[in-house]
Design goal:
Layout lengths: L2 H14 L5 E8 L9 H11 L3 E4 L18 H12 L4 E4 L5 H8 L4 H14 L5 H12 L2 H7 L9 H17 L1 H4 L9 E3 L5 E3 H28 L5 E7 L3 H11 L5 E4 L5
Parallel strand pairs: 1-6, 1-7, 2-3, 2-6
Antiparallel strand pairs: 4-5
Helix pairs in contact: 2-3, 5-10, 6-8, 10-11
Length: 270
């Protein structure tokens, strides 16, 4: 058999080699310890999943040069740090929108976000909102109640499609419907905050920027997760996020992973 045929057959065999499947498991969390969810509970979940990578909702400056956590206070960080100590081959990585908190402050989203919501709440309680505006804010407040109940239960109760849908509805009202109040009422265009650069920004504009940032932040996080996943063929990757982010990140990842060898799984179904 001549060398050309051998070379052709070798290339054909290599081209037929299937890529190893990469798994992404998105786990929604509570940042602060509660009786139903704390770092030890999360550590046990990680031991069951056995991830190769754990991705954290953190800026890169929270890590050392070799991707060790500089400090750990919240549930996800404590559990991840302990897991890496027990299983040293496990890699930790950040996937957050870089320097998100300073970005929000610099743009004037914060503290206009909280100030705006407090003003809407005060108008609601003294009956100054229109009927339509009252219904929006009433629904906004009500959407949080079932989530409080679910967040007090075991983790699988806030890691499933039903809860994801409730989170999506809550965030829809916060970022899409509340601006239907703030973008039309003069109270939000006549109150201002001074940004770090000395410029004024109205409550209206600050809140709208914050609402838009919800999309930008989650979309950026999903893209960052994909970059790491595409560089980690055949690995099992756990993504830890506040459970209110889970629906958005999963929705983005479902689109981004189409046609790839990356699968999305639930931790309790492995």
């Amino acid at each position: 058999m001549n060398r050309t045929i051998i070379t052709f057959l070798t290339l054909a065999i290599l081209s037929c080699k299937t890529k190893e499947t990469t798994e992404i498991i998105v786990i929604g969390t509570l940042h602060q310890p509660e009786a139903n969810f704390n770092s030890e509970i999360l550590f046990k979940i990680l031991e069951e999943v056995k991830p190769d990578f754990i991705l954290l909702e953190l800026d890169s400056n929270k890590f050392t040069a070799d991707f060790r956590l500089k400090e750990a206070k919240e549930n996800e960080l404590l559990a991840s740090k302990k897991y890496q100590e027990y299983y040293p081959d496990t890699q930790l990585r950040p996937y957050e929108f870089e320097d998100r908190n300073q970005y929000r402050i610099d743009k004037g989203m914060r503290p206009t976000d909280g100030l705006t919501l407090r003003l809407v709440d005060s108008l609601y309680h003294v009956g100054l909102l229109t009927t339509a505006e009252t219904e929006i804010f009433k629904t906004y407040k009500e959407t949080l109640e079932p989530l409080k109940i679910l967040a007090a239960k075991s983790p699988e109760n806030f890691n499933n499609p039903t809860t994801d849908s409730l989170c999506e509805r809550r965030q829809y009202y916060q970022y899409e419907m509340i601006p239907k109040i703030t973008n039309v009422r003069d109270e939000f265009d006549s109150r201002f905050l001074i940004k770090p650069n000395g410029e004024r920004i109205s409550y209206r504009d600050g809140y709208q920027l914050w609402a838009d940032f919800w999309d930008l932040r989650n979309q950026t996080m999903a893209k960052n997760i994909m970059v790491i996943s595409e560089q980690s063929e055949g690995k099992k990757i756990v993504v830890l996020c506040g459970f209110m982010h889970r629906y958005y990140i999963l929705s983005e990842l479902k689109q981004l992973t189409q046609g790839t060898d990356i699968t999305l799984n639930e931790y309790y179904e492995l």
